[in-house]
């Protein structure tokens, strides 16, 4: 069983790496807010990154935002750089869990995973890049298993609401759930909103590298999951959704890949019925559809060439119609924003066998919460870490590289998220 104990040599429950980044600053604040939820009511934690000065500023800011002056002196600082493996190893030796906020993960992530696996620190990240997530599973699962280390990727908005939402839908359905579609709507609030440049860059390089992901999947050599019940039909690339009453497109993030990995894990470990999954996102009305079409065409064309990628990276606001920006959203914008993910599931109620024809039961579940990227994400990441610390026996028996659903299926993560404003409910 992997260990989650601190010791004189490993003094920190959590080390937040990349704490000076746009997302990292909010993870720091969330850790400070929830410190009393650590084992026996305390949490020993430190911030880490490549600039001591920036980290001091971040602690200063958190102390002032949360009116907790003690953060300036009680939270330690560790200087570590992705380009200096010894500094990563030294950091990992001191941490039970590293919360890794340094992205794009395809460029910066692997040395951190390697250092965690080799030095006995569990690793949680916010990655929304399937190629990185699946690549880490391919390269490090066996070693993480031997070393008793959990490497749990995509523990932010990508992809905890979707992955845990599918499991919640399955658990609430009275019978055998066989398929779920999720529909995401984001409400920007009166001040508007945007997403920080860090995620824009991750998306640009992710799309540019699409064929590498296909090759990686071939290397796994996995058979498709069996389809139980009716096969879930794929919707078109743009359609009007009666479920959320607006134009809708397939969700382009990591959710489908993460949910599939979870289902595959649970089928193998627990011999359960796999749930088919389709992920969609609402776009809004016709004017948004026109903007999206225009932006997508430009994006698909430019992302293929290095000069195009350079331009996309230089002018995020222009090419994304203001959805992404170098400054990121303001705190006021974050306060006004929220999301809703509606899950429409179908299956066979108790007493009806999937071999008996079409599904005869339906279920609707909603996962809703505050702003996705910098409020929900830090809550999800910190709660994932607290779940490891407090409920380790409910996690898989061995270390390994896991999706959130695979790691947390048997824990109380849903209750923890509910308490922190990310609500899971059956309609
Ligand atoms: N899953 C989700 O829903 C979700 C939500 C939000 C963000 N994210 C992901 O989180 C990642 C970070 O996004 P962001 O917007 O916070 O980006 P960001 O503001 O650019 O932050 C990047 C961080 O990485 C650090 N860094 C860069 N190179 C480093 C190195 N060589 N050694 C150590 N640290 C280094 C930076 O340190 P300095 O401060 O010293 O420059 C900074 O702290 C992205 O991959 C993004 O996609 C995911």
Q: What's the short version?
A:
Pfam families: Sacchrp_dh_NADP. The chain is of the alpha/beta class and 427 residues long.
CATH class designation of the largest domain: Alpha Beta
List low-pLDDT spans. none
Q: Which hetero ligands occur in this complex?
A: NADP nicotinamide-adenine-dinucleotide phosphate
The neighbouring-strand order within the major sheet is 3-2-1-4-5-6-15
What would you note in describing this structure?
- With 427 residues, the protein is an alpha/beta fold.
- The protein has 17 helices and 16 strands.
- It has helices at 22-33, 52-65, 71-74, 85-93, 105-119, 130-147, 160-172, 197-208, 210-220, 255-270, 286-302, 306-314, 316-319, 331-336, 372-390, 404-408, 413-419; strands at residues 12-17, 45-49, 76-79, 95-100, 122-125, 150-152, 175-187, 195-196, 239-241, 246-250, 276-284, 324-325, 338-349, 361-370, 400-402, 423-426.
- It has a seven-stranded parallel beta sheet with strand order 3-2-1-4-5-6-15, sandwiched between helices.
- The protein is globular, with a radius of gyration of 21 Å.
- 46% of the residues are buried.
- The mean pLDDT is 95.
- It binds NADP nicotinamide-adenine-dinucleotide phosphate (NAP).
Which descriptors apply to this entry?
alpha/beta; Saccharopine_DH-like_oxidrdct; 45% helix; binds NADP nicotinamide-adenine-dinucleotide phosphate; Rossmann fold; NAD(P)-bd_dom_sf
Write the layout of secondary structure elements.
Layout: E1 12-17, H1 22-33, E2 45-49, H2 52-65, H3 71-74, E3 76-79, H4 85-93, E4 95-100, H5 105-119, E5 122-125, H6 130-147, E6 150-152, H7 160-172, E7 175-187, E8 195-196, H8 197-208, H9 210-220, E9 239-241, E10 246-250, H10 255-270, E11 276-284, H11 286-302, H12 306-314, H13 316-319, E12 324-325, H14 331-336, E13 338-349, E14 361-370, H15 372-390, E15 400-402, H16 404-408, H17 413-419, E16 423-426
Parallel strand pairs: 1-2, 1-4, 2-3, 4-5, 5-6, 6-15, 7-11, 8-12
Antiparallel strand pairs: 7-13, 9-10, 10-11, 13-14, 14-16
This protein binds NADP nicotinamide-adenine-dinucleotide phosphate.
Residues 18, 20-24, 49-51, 54, 81-83, 101-105, 108, 126, 128, 156-158, 196, 198-199, 202, 373, 377 line the site of NADP nicotinamide-adenine-dinucleotide phosphate.
GO cellular component, one term: lipid droplet
Domain Saccharopine dehydrogenase NADP binding: 15-152
Organism: Knipowitschia caucasica
